[in-house]
Amino acid sequence: MSARTWIGPSAPERLGILRATRSIAIVGASDNPSRASNFVATYLLSSSPYEVYFVNPRVREILGHPVYPSLDALPVVPDLVEVFRRAEDLPTVLEETIAVGAKTLWLQLGAWDEDVARRGEAAGLQVVMDRCVKIEHARFHGGLHLAGFDTGVISSRRARL
């Protein structure tokens, strides 16, 4: 792996992105509860103000919500496109994100493609890579303790208040 040279948005900039976002499309959403995209979707639907849309050509419904085969099939233009796809799929998702007019391309933890980031920025997108929308939202809104992070306690039981 080559050295990372692209610098993404700072924490205050990521907070600004999340505050400006009203709708999120999850590309690569899964109906399998053990998949990260499903866990993130569950959190976003229950603990965030966002309208959440799912994109996956092989699934019809996730968590009681319809799933769309592509970004251009969505009933809205999403503000933020969150991507749970393999590295080789990222350039195609970038092109689809630009084509629908979204404002932000957000690549999930582990996803990093500096060419995609630079091309996205050149097209006017805000780009975030190797970050989780769920973790970032919880971090900025005091919810990390709800997700089992940052409590100082290692336990599967919820603390009594």
UniProtKB/TrEMBL annotation:
Q: Which domain of life does the UniProt lineage start with?
A: Bacteria
Annotated InterPro entries: CoA-bd, NAD(P)-bd_dom_sf
Extract the SUPFAM superfamilies matched here: NAD(P)-binding Rossmann-fold domains
Give start and end of each CoA-binding domain: 17-111
Q: Which Gene3D superfamilies match?
A: NAD(P)-binding Rossmann-like Domain
Q: Which PANTHER family does this entry report, sorted A to Z?
A: COA-BINDING DOMAIN-CONTAINING PROTEIN (PTHR33303:SF2), CYTOPLASMIC PROTEIN-RELATED (PTHR33303)
Protein name according to UniProt: CoA-binding protein
